[in-house]
Amino acid sequence: MATDPLFLLRDHVIHKRPIVFLGADGKELPTLASATDIKLASDTDKPVILPRATPTAYKKSGSTEDYYALDSLVFLAQNHTLVYSSLLKEGISVGISPVSILDMRHLTDFLTGKVETTDNIVQKKRPAPADVTASECIASKQRKHEPHYPSFEAVKNDTEVSARIMEGERIISNHYSVLDSSKDLSGILKVYRDLYPEDFANGKSATPQRGTPGSARTGAASRPNPSPAGVPAPTRLPPPSKRAHRIPLIVVPAAATSLITMYNVQEFLQNHTYVPNQQVRELGTKKESRITLERARIGHPKPMLYHIVDSVEKFKPDDWDRLAAVFTVGATWQFKKWKWEDPREIFKHVKGFYVKLADEKPKDTIAMWNVETIDVDRSKRHKDKAVVSQLWDSLDSYIAAYKPNLMQ
């Protein structure tokens, strides 16, 4: 039996052998979610224990050097009956990067024994993992975690590297800006008006000034007298807005000729891979009316959520307020039944993106609209990641500057 994890896993799937998940302490776990290692049987007496991130011999489509990790293939083997959108959602929820929609069918056929090989399998000399037992694995990890104190030069070099990284970072918020409220406080103003109508009748400002009588910091002795009996009781403060009202909306074209539609937008924005619409349709993927996209962010415990649609017909008033971006095909008919009729007015309120193939010229209308052109290479898929990263950076900057209420 081949020693590459890919072929070991295939043998387990075909012969329905159990796949064992191990924690950091070497104990067996029921699921892959919290496991650190995966134990597979081999043709020797000792099983093979591999870290879940061990690269396999299956190369990612559109890449020359990236190979799928073992946990991604194990997750596919256990959930290959799911439709891709469900597979993607389930994988992200347990911290696993699912396989690309381009590779899902061929990988499933290979792992289940329907085909003997695929073009993406690269059988080259790779460092074969050593056959170790669970106890040997634990002992090895203990040796790795022995205290190690870096030299002064190592610390100095690390500090210099960190300084260079920070020079290229873009700060969205800091310990000062996070104190600035972006919420609507009109409800509090209404309560103040009901409690102290004489302030408004005398032409006084409803907002207490810092350091003056009436300020919340001067204590109870400086507060105005209670309102007379004829003044109505203060109304209840409105409940805090639900998180759904802060989820940015992204609109993509409904036209089948568009490079980005509901069929491939999730693969493009979430997996950083452009897949032509026709290719996705041939896989039998159904078009969804709305996609909820989760995007992990460094330094944030929760992912950023986005709602993606291709129609504004069912938009409510607050949906227009949380509309953050629109992908355009450069045609005015795309904006029928919009809140703003003129595309030039639309892109004053919404971030615009125009996605085209890198070797094609943009439409003439694009030069008159405030949109950002995104060039996608026709065949070199390894360039997609940089393109999508640029897109996210632009959208992040736009939301932070013009729609901070959508920052979760």
TrEMBL record:
Its main location: nucleus. Residues 59-145 form the Paf1 complex subunit Cdc73 N-terminal domain. One of its GO terms (molecular function) is RNA polymerase II complex binding. It comes from Tieghemiomyces parasiticus. Keywords: Nucleus, Transcription, Transcription regulation. Belongs to the CDC73 family. Residues 200-242 are annotated as: Disordered. One of its GO terms (biological process) is positive regulation of transcription elongation by RNA polymerase II. This is Accessory factor associated with RNA polymerase II. GO terms for cellular component: Cdc73/Paf1 complex. Residues 246-397 form the Cell division control protein 73 C-terminal domain. Pfam families: CDC73_C, CDC73_N. Residues 225-241 have a biased composition (Pro residues). PANTHER family: CDC73 DOMAIN PROTEIN, PARAFIBROMIN. It is found in: Nucleus. The lineage of its organism: Eukaryota, Fungi, Fungi incertae sedis, Zoopagomycota, Kickxellomycotina. InterPro entries: Cdc73/Parafibromin, CDC73_C, CDC73_C_sf, Cdc73_N.
